[in-house]
């Protein structure tokens, strides 16, 4: 049966795979907790995809070959992002081994002074998360040390945790090394460089306002504090790596390439190459290289397996033992399964039915962006996963943005403004649960002080209402 002659499912039937998916995801969080995204969530997506395919094929007599073709096409959309993620995994390992990431952490921690602890903590976490592309690694390592210092200063734990999380999520959101920063434009159909540039208009004001608020709050907590903990961390880093300003060249190079609209993959490859040069010429004496073959072997091992360090300091070891292509496999697996689900929902027309039901309330570009923001928050609340809150609404609204003559950068920005940053504000979301555990602060205690995360969707909504920085599809085509 042709696609044109196949029946459209009802709204009730179309919602069954979605409700099943959300139910399975909730069970996974309860049963598997932090390990839910290591396999259970992927299986839940595949089960829901199978149910959608069965309904479409047998209940509505839709052509199976067309369905299969659509699912494969859906997967193809994310293949570039998967390649980028593999390269990013290699880049992170190489940059750590080459001392690039340790140098950025070293100087970031050196910025902290007692009188401006909150704003500098936020900015330091921005720098560290930008360099690693990971908010979780930042909050789970440097964040722990900052929490201890904040307690000594007499600053409420919720405030300190809020500043740490705000900085970490800004860096994660704006870093070309971040998986969500690569995922959002892949789903929306924009490019990594244009996506990051477009996010400046929402993330920039949000983080500036946040730092100002932290500065005002910090003025009330100016008490002397010992900086021994930070000294220990910086001493361990300096003993295990050669710290040099030259090591800022690789990140500056890759950020320059991204903002100059260079393609993401060649830019990352340049970053990897510069990182290898840093290993060979700036960190050589810290590794037991016996020959050129040994250099090759260790660099290759770090590229695919990640960097590992045993410094004697648990926090440093946890922060710097990461990276490698293998470390990206769970994320890529989740993306793959999510795209299967999206393809099944699209090919069976269930996605169109749900989208049309939502779009009946959409009559302008503002209401479309507002619906996107709300949908991301809804998925974050119900599905408890930031990746799904990007992929599912991205697939739902992509065509509607074309219909409203809106460039895909508007969609990818909205997905991150509410999908990425809101996850950490929800106690049962993986982001909220993880950060509450590692920082030792209840999610609802730090949420009121995570100003960047609270402001990002509001700034995005304000810009949508005013029309500022909203790019039209035709203008984007001319600019490109």
Provide an overview of this structure:
This protein has 480 residues and is mainly α. The protein has a domain at 81-327. Helices cover 74% and strands 0% of the residues. It has 25 helices and no strands. The protein has helices spanning 11-32, 40-59, 64-77, 79-97, 100-110, 117-132, 135-140, 142-153, 157-174, 179-188, 192-218, 228-240, 249-259, 264-282, 292-305, 314-320, 329-347, 350-359, 365-383, 386-403, 408-422, 430-439, 443-446, 451-466, 473-479. It is globular. The two termini are 40 Å apart.
Features:
globular; mainly alpha; 480 residues; single chain
Short description:
This protein is mainly α. 74% of the residues lie in helices and 0% in strands. The protein contains 25 helices and no strands.
The fraction of residues assigned to DSSP E strands is under 5%
Q: What would you call the structural class?
A: mainly alpha
End-to-end C-alpha gap: 40 Å
Gyration radius, to the nearest Å? 23 Å
String of helices and strands = HHHHHHHHHHHHHHHHHHHHHHHHH
| Biggest sheet layout | none
Give the integer mean of the pLDDT values: 86
* Unreliable runs: 1-5
Summarize the amount of helix as a percent range. over 70%
Number of strands: 0
What global shape is seen? globular
Please tally the helical runs, counting DSSP H or I stretches of 4 or more residues: 25
What's the arrangement of secondary structure elements?
Elements: H1 11-32, H2 40-59, H3 64-77, H4 79-97, H5 100-110, H6 117-132, H7 135-140, H8 142-153, H9 157-174, H10 179-188, H11 192-218, H12 228-240, H13 249-259, H14 264-282, H15 292-305, H16 314-320, H17 329-347, H18 350-359, H19 365-383, H20 386-403, H21 408-422, H22 430-439, H23 443-446, H24 451-466, H25 473-479
């Amino acid at each position: 049966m042709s696609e044109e002659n196949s029946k459209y499912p009802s709204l009730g039937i179309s919602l069954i795979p979605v409700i099943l998916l959300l139910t399975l995801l909730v069970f996974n969080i309860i049963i598997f907790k932090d390990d839910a995204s290591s396999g259970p969530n992927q299986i839940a997506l595949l089960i829901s995809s199978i149910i959608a395919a069965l309904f479409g094929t047998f209940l509505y007599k839709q052509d199976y070959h067309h369905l299969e073709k659509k699912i494969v096409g859906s997967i193809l959309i994310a293949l570039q992002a998967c390649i980028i993620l593999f390269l990013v995994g290699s880049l992170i390992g190489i940059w750590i081994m080459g001392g690039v990431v340790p140098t950025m952490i070293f100087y970031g921690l050196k910025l902290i002074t007692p009188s401006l602890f909150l704003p500098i903590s936020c900015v330091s976490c921005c720098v560290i998360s930008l360099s690693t592309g990971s908010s979780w690694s930042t909050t789970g390592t440097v964040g722990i040390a900052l929490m201890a210092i904040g307690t000594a200063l007499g600053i409420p734990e919720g405030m300190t945790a809020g500043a740490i999380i705000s900085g970490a999520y800004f860096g994660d959101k704006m870093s070309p090394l971040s998986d969500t920063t690569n995922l959002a434009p892949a789903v929306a159909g924009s490019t990594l460089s244009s996506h990051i540039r477009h996010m400046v208009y929402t993330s920039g004001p949000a983080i500036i306002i946040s730092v100002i608020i932290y500065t005002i709050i910090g003025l009330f907590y100016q008490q002397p504090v010992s900086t021994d903990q930070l000294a220990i961390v910086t001493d361990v880093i300096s003993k295990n790596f050669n710290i040099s300003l030259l090591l800022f060249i690789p990140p500056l190079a890759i950020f320059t390439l991204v903002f100059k609209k260079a393609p993401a993959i060649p830019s990352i490859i340049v970053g990897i190459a510069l990182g290898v040069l840093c290993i060979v010429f700036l960190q050589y004496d810290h590794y037991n290289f016996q020959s050129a073959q040994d250099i090759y072997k260790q660099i290759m091992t770090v590229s695919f397996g990640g960097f590992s360090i045993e410094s004697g300091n648990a926090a440093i070891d946890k922060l710097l033992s990461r990276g490698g292509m293998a470390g990206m496999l769970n994320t890529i697996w989740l993306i793959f399964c999510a795209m299967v689900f999206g393809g099944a929902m699209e090919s069976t027309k269930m996605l169109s039915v749900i989208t049309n039901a939502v779009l009946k309330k959409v009559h302008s570009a503002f209401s479309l962006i507002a619906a996107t923001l709300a949908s991301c928050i809804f998925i974050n609340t119900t599905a408890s996963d930031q990746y799904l809150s990007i992929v599912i609404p991205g697939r739902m609204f992509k065509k509607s943005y074309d219909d409203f003559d809106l460039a895909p950068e508007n969609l990818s920005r909205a997905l991150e403004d509410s999908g990425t940053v809101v996850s950490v504000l929800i106690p049962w979301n993986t982001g909220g649960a993880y950060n509450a555990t590692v920082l030792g602060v209840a999610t609802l205690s730090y949420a009121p002080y995570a100003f960047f995360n609270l402001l990002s969707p509001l700034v995005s909504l304000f810009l949508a209402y005013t029309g500022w920085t909203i790019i039209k599809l035709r203008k984007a085509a001319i600019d490109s």
